[in-house]
Amino acid sequence: MENPILFYEPEAPYGYLSNFARFPINDGAVTWKTVEHFYQAQKFNNPNIVAQIHHARTPADAYALGKQYDEQVRTDWHQRKEAVMRDALQMKFTQNHAIGHWLVATRPHTLTEHSFKDDYWGDGGDGHGKNRLGHLLMNLRQELSITPPYNLIHFIESANLPTDWGIFNMHGFEDPDTGVEHVALTFGHWKEEESVLIRLHSECLTGDALFSKRCDCGSQLRRAFQNIAQAGTGAILYLRQEGRGIGLLNKIRAYHLQDQGADTVEANEALGFAADLRQYDFCRGILHYLNINKVKLMTNNPRKVKALREVGINVVERVAIQEGQNVFNERYLSVKATKLGHMLDVISPV
Ligand SMILES: Nc1nc2c(ncn2[C@@H]2O[C@H](COP(=O)(O)OP(=O)(O)OP(=O)(O)O)[C@@H](O)[C@H]2O)c(=O)[nH]1
Ligand SMILES: [Zn+2]
């Protein structure tokens, strides 16, 4: 393992790894403010003590109560505590989606609770301690890293992205199988049970960045930003699937054939590609990270709706996004409608 990540204070870097970090856990019956509240309460059979710890305002108060009633700790606690801690960490990192992906992203570093006060769960401050918390976290990290949806995409980092439509949050991801980088842009906040307005936008350098009129992508991207800003919440998953998955240079080869009369499907096929090579499975990992369970999908492409549902994404509504129709892309749009099933009110070319 490479150089250790030392964690302790919840407010410090990697503080989310601390049992004092404010991530609630639900044990099926009760919601606990933090892992510390849950862990301290499991020491006792006395319901009054358990209730006092459950209502403790802070994890430090919960810890203090655990100490205060030390002589009433259950007799089998020493044998049970590791299993209790393991359950608590499992709940914390799977019920709070983003930190589960953050934990996986700490690989391959050693995780060490750098605590001068605790040489069982921590390292004792000078490394003589057992660091059992660090070891349980690394075991859980290994488990999650091979489990969907954590293994479908790797979260890398987030940053702010000021745009013409407001300040979005940008989240970078990497496909563990292909190394392809993807981006999600989020605006506002939502609860897991809400349906969120999203756009799965396939990268189109020509349309998104070079103001091309050969397609509708750039106009659709701008409209997606506008719709989300107006709605107050939403997300754009910007997927590096240039050319419906054949890449930029092959798309230029396809455009070259289209300049000679082929349509957008015939050109792909003439190059030996299917009409649409895009896969969406990894999107499940991105949406899980973003705590999005139900989506209102901005698209004209029913095949995309079907493809997302097939990989387990709950599309509750399709929101039309017809933008940017012009003389240069009329034929392209009408072929998408007739051959690729797009739902477009296309003015058929003369
Ligand atoms: N191979 C190929 N790709 C194209 C062509 N025109 C646009 N694209 C790519 O198609 C992708 C966008 O797909 P679209 O069919 O426009 O739209 P969609 O994402 O399937 O459906 P919507 O969600 O309604 O936009 C981008 O990756 C573009 O680079 C083309 O003529 N040939
Ligand atoms: Zn395009």
From TrEMBL:
Coiled coil: none annotated. It catalyses: 5-amino-6-(5-phospho-D-ribosylamino)uracil + H2O = 5,6-diaminouracil + D-ribose 5-phosphate; GTP + 4 H2O = 2,5-diamino-6-hydroxy-4-(5-phosphoribosylamino)-pyrimidine + formate + 2 phosphate + 3 H(+); 2,5-diamino-6-hydroxy-4-(5-phosphoribosylamino)-pyrimidine + H2O = 2,5,6-triamino-4-hydroxypyrimidine + D-ribose 5-phosphate. GTP binds at residues 199-203, 220, 242-244, 264, 299, 304. Residues 6-144 form the NADAR domain. Its EC number is 3.5.4.25. Its cofactor is Zn(2+). Pathway: Cofactor biosynthesis; riboflavin biosynthesis; 5-amino-6-(D-ribitylamino)uracil from GTP: step 1/4. Signal peptide: none annotated. Keywords: GTP-binding, Hydrolase, Metal-binding, Nucleotide-binding, Riboflavin biosynthesis, Zinc. Binds 1 zinc ion per subunit. One of its GO terms (molecular function) is GTP cyclohydrolase II activity. InterPro entries: GTP_cyclohydro_II, NADAR, RibA, RibA-like_sf, YbiA-like_sf. Zn(2+) binds at residues 204, 215, 217. Residues 158-319 form the GTP cyclohydrolase II domain. CDD domains: GTP_cyclohydro2, NADAR. Belongs to the GTP cyclohydrolase II family. HAMAP family: RibA. Catalyzes the conversion of GTP to 2,5-diamino-6-ribosylamino-4(3H)-pyrimidinone 5'-phosphate (DARP), formate and pyrophosphate. This is GTP cyclohydrolase-2. It comes from Zooshikella harenae. The lineage of its organism: Bacteria, Pseudomonadati, Pseudomonadota, Gammaproteobacteria, Oceanospirillales.
